[in-house]
Specification:
The complex is a heterodimer of chains A (103) and B (359). With 103 residues, chain A is mostly beta strands. Chain A contains no helices and eleven strands. Helix content of chain A is 0%, strand content 47%. The radius of gyration of chain B is 21 Å and the shape is globular. The chains are: A mainly beta (103), B mainly alpha (359). Bound molecules: FE2/S2 (inorganic) cluster (FES).
Chain lengths: 103, 359
Amino acid sequence: MAEWIDACATDDIDEEDLIRFDHGDRTFAIYRSPNDEFFCTDGLCTHEQVHLEDGLVMDYVIECPKHNGQFDYRTGEAKRAPVCANLGTYPVKVEGDRVFVEI
Amino acid sequence: MTKRDYSLLGPDSERAVETGLATAEWYHTDIPRKEMKALMQRSDQPAIRDAIILFGSMIVLAGIGIALWPSWSSAPFWLAYGVLYGSAMDSRWHECGHGTAFKTPWMNNVVYQIASFCMIRNPVSWRWSHARHHTDTIIVGRDPEIVAMRPPALFRIFLNFFGIFDALNGWKRMLLNAVGNLDPEEATFIPEQEQHKVIGVARVWVLIYLATIVLAVAMQSILPLMVIGSPRLYGAWHHVMTGIMQHAGLAEDVLDHRLNSRTVYINPISRFVYWNMNYHVEHHMFPMVPYHRLPELHEKIKHDLPAPNTSILDAYREIWPALKRQLRYEDFFVKRELPGSARPYREDLHEQALSVPAE
Ligand code: FES
């Protein structure tokens, strides 16, 4: 059963950037878009399971640090080889200065 | 002495998986996230400038070559055109394949497609093969792009200075793909859903070559082939010369690019042709950094890397004796010294590879 988890403060993430968020034995990536929206995806790239935390956020795209595969982090859609499989995405809400993800 | 098997389907491939060398965690120099983010930023401007210089020069050089044809006075223009076609396209293929050269994706794709054609590297297959080269850099049985194997095939390397081995392989592979087949090794790293694209591209290329050959026959002249196809042979020497510097003579089966890759300071013309890939340790450690920011990255992390070779000649003074020694003693490699400011090599990660004597 999914529940809302208090993941981080809004200020923990720079604009157009991401941070890693670990919960239990799972790992996620939380993004702050250039328009100050927040999103959450699985943390590991679907190509070779490298964490996306060191990747580059460009507009609504996250580029994987290992082979430059890209995903749209709003939908998880794989956008550029070598990634083929989409990323899982999770609902996010902001309350006050906290970011919650439903996982 | 261990006999190495570089095929992706052989026993060394299995061994790499069993010993944890495949798809492993690699050493990275620490660099603050803010600085790395700044270095990774994309920009169209440097690559547009370089593309204008590159394609503009190719048009001018080929134009003069055609105008002076068949006089021998056209030769220097063909030689220069050849280096841009058969060598500069190697680095364009590489950078645009990573998607880092331009900020705008379609620009990367256009240059990637042109460069792939010039280098006779199927743009789909080679994207996957290069991804593997980054995952498993110089891991025997895993990396499909090892140039100087052990013992080094010196005659083959020599032939490749004239593109002979690689180009012939490229054309052979193109024909195989064009009739709807994939090489069994290719099939190990290209996902099934991508395989039809390999075949589609190969068919388009066959048509381009056919048109060129028909034109040559109609003109009763090899001139069309001087422009398309043969520069991959007569202009290959520069990319082979710089490509060999990347990893030859260094360690295999290690998980630290400081041990298996080489950074070399080179002259500005070669740097343009090679698009800064002489900063090769830096590129492998941080493949997200575009070519035009590599000199800055180098400045930031050089305290943690072996001293770069000071010139192409200096690099070959290290490589040539190492390759000669590997002819007799395959386990030999050059272990490069780290400066005092660097984090030491983690011997535990490469126990097996480093246990054999190095220089
Ligand atoms: S691991 Fe992410 S693109 Fe390869």
